[in-house]
């Protein structure tokens, strides 16, 4: 109504107002309100503007009403109250409308979120379903492909091995494949979730009259109609089948295989063995130790220390602990005999330590003939005692000392104990000395026997134990004034010894055939094969691999593990790794495995009966490394390696007659077949002047002693009377060969000690610097020749190798790239460091003459005076003194060049008389350096000789 009045330009009268009110009452309010509200947002906004306009002009309206007739004031007040009520009502309606709109918007957002979540859940479930469906399709296709692969394998096997007698394993594998195909083919029928009636012959549309009447007409069919088989429904034919069966009756199980079917021939040459003897084991110890082993295996969780203690109790020596300690207490010298594996090396020093023999600062010394054995045994004992290696338990070998002030058990090489006499002739720091592996009879061991025997007479408190693994203990007992013998059984199981019926012409081929024969016919158990040297081991390895490749899957896996001195360490440790299930390990080893190595799991031993021994000829001054028959003692040692963990078999590739009549009882001691120059120098330094009548267990030949004295005199270590000179005393300080020590002493004169000790260290390592794998021989040879620049010779090449390795920061990768043994180089570095320390001890300054290689060569000549050779007119080398024809070894860098005069490190006899580590020198230097040994006449004669075809040249000096 107010809105109508606002459109009137004149002043509203009472009649007009009444007319408007009447008109307003006739308008339906709800309908008008709803229409105004539903008119859209634009009408609603316009209405609000109008309402605001009325509120703002309320004062002006009041003024206009005041200017008008006074009696209209009352009507104006009533009209204002109506407008306020209308605004209030409109405000409430607007609030309700806003709240309703907000609720609708909230519901829409909730609905939208709900739809989004539902969409995501739907997509996720659909993706999972799609993935499962895809996986199912893939597996279905995979089954088809796998089925095709198995069918192809079956077809290939039928084509390749059809008509060939298969082994039991291969037959089982083929049957497994066929059953797998049948199972896979039957799966589609099994996967159906409904049942189908089997095919019937009377189904609609597929009526089969033949099947319907098959049972009725079966008895009337002729044999030809049944595929060649007789009709079993006919009585006459049944009777005939029974008669034929009686005529061809076979005894035994119908399906049983004959004994010849158990194995197939995988190689032609089989060696016939005969059982000649049985080495009995200690049955009581066997049962007792087996009980302890079962008891040990029943403990699931044991600490490492507890395991070691349990293993100690399982050793045979454990049961004789108290008796052994009592015997040591009652006797000053005791000979202990125990087979390898009895525990005498590791347990006996511990028993003495526990009994109090290391009190008051005393130590126990245990000598070993090999440095590897000293290191490994010390590491084992330290673990058993639960101490760190180098503290209470340590080892001492040449150029390496792993001991401390806390050390009470010291394992050392026999040569190191020999040098202990130089420092302390009374061995005052030791309460017990144990000479282990005495049966090996090394030079140092034999010298120790004489020194310790004499020392025991002056030191009554010193206990001396002589430990041996052989039964030849009477000889040791007689030498040590009838010392008592204490025997410890070591082998717990019997060993069957088998010999060949006839001698084998080729022991290497026979050994390989025997290994395959054992692998195919015998039960599980590893094989140990003894071969003379590295060359034979590598040849046997190649032959075995070749034959195994030819047999393919006809035999089980055979793991070949070689072990010899020059083999890298990472390959040597493979012999101690456990054998995988279903496989067999064969260890190809030298005689180092007789006593020094204990390999678990060995059940079979193959003994060709040969070994390589180094012998020295004093007339020619030449060392020979030749193959010799082993002794009976070595044969017993080899056989005993198979009876440690179970009953064993030893296959000897020689006849019983050869064993009884051709073999020596024991191996010739090393002191009777080697150069004694180093031994004589040591004895002279100890004050023993009468080296000929020294108390040797087995005296060496007198001519060998005389030749050693002559060599030391030529080197200046002894004077004319045989007394030790100042040079000789300085030479004795170096634990190397006298020729090497003289070369080091001479380096002081030529001011090249730094280069000379490097060469001495490399020479002392031996011939294990360069590694020549069979599949990379050309690359290895080319890498080696890179160090032989300008025809420098082997000595200078070794110097270049070490200096190059040093420049490469002693890199292991550099060694691999140049085919050089890392282990040998590291040992050479340790030796060089020790030699450098000894230079200060003898008062020699470390000097270098890297630019003057002639000075280095002169120092080499000073040490190796007798080792010189000259080229004759026929292009052959002859030694200066003995006029013996020699050849340069093919491994030398000078093998293809002809030099007028050479100096060599050693002369060995293999297939020829070979000189190793050769360097070309000026012949005039020989007279300048050693006028007492070489004459000018020899040199002049060399200059006047004519060379064939102008070959040969001399170094200018």
From TrEMBL:
Keyword Secreted: no
GO cellular component, one term: catalytic step 2 spliceosome
Catalysed reaction, written as an equation: ATP + H2O = ADP + phosphate + H(+)
Listed EC numbers: 3.6.4.13
GO BP: mRNA processing; RNA splicing
A GO molecular-function annotation: RNA helicase activity
Keyword Hydrolase: yes
Domain Helicase ATP-binding: 325-489
PANTHER family in UniProt: ATP-DEPENDENT RNA HELICASE, PRE-MRNA-SPLICING FACTOR ATP-DEPENDENT RNA HELICASE DHX16
Name used for this protein in its record: RNA helicase
Natural source organism: Papaver atlanticum
């Amino acid at each position: 109504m107010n809105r109508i009045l606002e459109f009137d330009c004149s002043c509203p009268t009472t009649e007009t107002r009444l007319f408007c009110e009447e008109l307003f009452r006739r308008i339906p309010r709800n309908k008008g309100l709803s229409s105004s509200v539903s008119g859209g947002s634009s009408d609603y906004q316009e209405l609000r503007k109008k309402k605001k306009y009325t509120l703002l002009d309320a004062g002006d309206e009041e003024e206009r009403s005041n200017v008008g007739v006074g009696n209209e004031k009352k009507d104006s007040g009533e009209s204002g109250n109506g407008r306020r009520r209308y605004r209030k009502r409109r405000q409430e309606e607007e609030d309700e409308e806003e709240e309703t709109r907000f609720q609708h918007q909230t519901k829409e957002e909730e609905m939208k979120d709900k739809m989004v979540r539902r969409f995501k859940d739907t997509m996720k479930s659909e993706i999972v379903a799609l993935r499962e469906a895809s996986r199912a399709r893939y597996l279905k296709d995979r089954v088809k492909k796998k089925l095709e692969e198995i069918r192809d394998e079956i077809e290939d096997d039928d084509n390749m091995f059809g008509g060939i007698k298969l082994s039991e394993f291969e037959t089982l594998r083929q049957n497994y494949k066929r059953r797998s195909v049948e199972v896979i083919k039957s799966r589609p029928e099994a996967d159906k979730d409904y049942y189908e009636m089997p095919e019937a012959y009377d189904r609609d549309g597929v009526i089969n009259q033949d099947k319907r009447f098959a049972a009725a007409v079966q008895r009337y069919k002729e044999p030809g109609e049944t595929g060649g088989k007789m009709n079993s429904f006919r009585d006459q034919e049944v009777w005939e089948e029974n008669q034929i069966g009686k005529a061809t009756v076979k005894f035994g199980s119908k399906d049983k295989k004959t004994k010849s079917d158990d194995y197939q021939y995988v190689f032609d040459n089989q060696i016939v063995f005969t059982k000649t003897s049985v080495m009995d084991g200690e049955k009581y110890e066997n049962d007792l130790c087996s009980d302890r082993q079962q008891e040990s295996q029943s403990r699931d969780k044991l600490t490492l220390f507890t395991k070691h203690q349990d293993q100690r109790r399982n050793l045979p020596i454990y049961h004789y602990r108290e008796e052994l300690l009592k015997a040591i207490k009652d006797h000053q010298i005791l000979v202990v005999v125990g087979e390898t594996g009895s525990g005498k090396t590791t347990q006996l020093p511990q028993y003495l330590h526990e009994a109090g023999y290391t009190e008051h600062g005393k130590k126990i010394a245990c000598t070993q003939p090999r440095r590897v054995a000293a290191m490994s045994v010390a590491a084992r004992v330290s673990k058993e005692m639960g101490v760190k290696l180098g503290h209470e338990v340590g080892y001492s070998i040449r150029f390496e000392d792993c001991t401390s002030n806390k050390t009470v058990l010291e394992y050392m090489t026999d040569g190191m104990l020999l040098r202990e006499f130089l420092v302390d002739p009374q061995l005052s720091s030791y309460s017990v000395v144990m000479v282990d592996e005495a049966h090996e009879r090394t030079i140092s061991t034999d010298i120790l026997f004489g020194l310790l025997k004499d020392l025991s007479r002056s030191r009554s408190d010193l206990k001396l134990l002589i430990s041996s693994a052989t039964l030849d203990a009477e000889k040791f007992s007689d030498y040590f004034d009838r010392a008592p013998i204490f025997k410890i059984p070591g082998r717990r199981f019997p060993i069957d010894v088998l010999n060949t019926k006839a001698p084998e012409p080729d022991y290497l081929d026979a050994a390989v055939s025997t290994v395959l024969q054992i692998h195919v016919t015998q039960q599980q158990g590893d094989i140990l094969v003894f071969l003379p040297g590295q060359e034979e081991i590598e040849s046997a390895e190649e032959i075995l691999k070749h034959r195994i490749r030819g047999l393919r899957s006809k035999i089980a896996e055979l793991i070949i593990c070689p072990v010899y001195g020059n083999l890298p360490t990472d390959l040597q440790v493979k012999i101690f790794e456990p054998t995988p299930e279903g496989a067999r390990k064969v260890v190809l080893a030298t005689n180092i495995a007789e006593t020094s190595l204990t390999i678990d799991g060995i059940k079979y031993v193959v003994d060709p009966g040969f070994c390589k021994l180094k012998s020295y000829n004093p007339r020619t001054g030449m060392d020979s490394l030749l193959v010799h028959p082993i002794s009976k003692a070595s044969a017993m040692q080899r056989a005993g390696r198979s009876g440690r963990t179970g009953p064993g078999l030893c296959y000897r590739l020689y006849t019983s007659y050869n064993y009884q009549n051709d073999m020596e009882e024991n191996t010739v001691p090393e002191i009777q077949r080697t150069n004694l120059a180093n031994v004589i120098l040591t004895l002279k330094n100890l004050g023993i002047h009468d080296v000929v009548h020294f108390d040797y267990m087995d005296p060496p030949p007198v001519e060998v002693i005389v030749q050693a004295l002559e060599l030391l005199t030529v080197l200046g270590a002894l004077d004319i009377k045989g007394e030790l000179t100042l040079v000789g005393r300085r030479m004795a300080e170096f634990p190397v060969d006298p020729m090497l020590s003289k070369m080091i002493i001479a380096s002081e004169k030529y001011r090249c000690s730094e280069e000379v000790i490097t060469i001495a260290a490399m020479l002392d390592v031996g011939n294990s610097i360069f590694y020549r794998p069979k599949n990379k021989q050309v690359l290895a040879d080319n890498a080696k020749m890179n160090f032989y620049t300008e025809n420098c010779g082997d000595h200078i090449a070794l110097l270049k190798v070490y200096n190059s390795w040093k420049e490469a920061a002693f890199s292991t990768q550099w060694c691999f790239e140049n085919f050089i043994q890392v282990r040998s180089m590291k040992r050479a570095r340790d030796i060089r460091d020790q030699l450098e320390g000894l230079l200060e001890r003898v008062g020699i300054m470390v000097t270098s003459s890297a630019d003057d290689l002639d000075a280095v060569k002169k120092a080499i000549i000073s040490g190796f005076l007798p080792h010189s050779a000259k080229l004759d007119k026929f292009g052959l080398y002859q030694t200066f003194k003995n006029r013996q024809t020699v050849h340069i070894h093919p491994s030398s860098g000078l093998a293809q060049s002809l030099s007028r005069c050479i100096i060599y490190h050693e002369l060995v006899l293999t297939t020829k008389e070979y000189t190793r580590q050769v360097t070309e020198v000026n012949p005039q230097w020989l007279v300048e350096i050693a006028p007492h040994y070489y004459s000018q006449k020899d040199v002049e004669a060399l200059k006047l000789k004519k060379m064939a075809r102008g070959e040969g040249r001399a170094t200018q000096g």
